[in-house]
Amino acid sequence: MSLAVTRFVFLLLLPYVTSSTTNGVGDGDDTYSAYDLLQHFNFPMGLLPKGATGYELDSSTGQFRAFFNGPCSFSLEGSYQLKYKSTIGGQISNNKLTSLTGVSVKVLFLWLNIVEVTRSGDDLEFSVGIASASFPIENFYECPQCGCGLDCVNGPLRKLKINPSVSSI
Questions:
Q1: Which of 6, 15, 33, 165 has its CA 20 to 30 A from that of 54?
Q2: Which of 82, 83, 103 is closest to 38 using CA atoms?
Q3: Domain tally, the chain
Q4: What is the model's pLDDT at position 10?
Q5: DSSP for 7-21?
Q6: Which UniProt keywords apply (predicted)?
């Protein structure tokens, strides 16, 4: 087979052998960030801490991964401690994050994985499998920062609003 024919066959098959993963909400446009991805699916960007370095999205399945330079942990209002691994993932669709991996919250003395986040109107419901808690979306307009959460300059501590609906299965 000549070199020209080999190149032609390669170029013809290239779309079928490349991954369906993209680094941008806009069909491979690298100007989009992991925060843009959240907003594209109707979530506030404050679900992720500052410092996301990129993401991958399989637009046919909704499978995604977001990347950080390393693990990240912080406290919110001194009562909720959160940990993010250097890579988190799951499945994203409009108003729903499922099969989450890499994000955990400390409840009493136990670290529990957050497995699902659902948006219902102006509330976000976080599920750890056996229980869930609902918070107003306004708590997530600002991205927390690794190490210090939302109180990074020792300014006035912003109270995390909690909805009274905490449920368990």
A1: 15
A2: 103
A3: 1
A4: 34
A5: HHHHHHHHHHHS-SE
A6: Signal
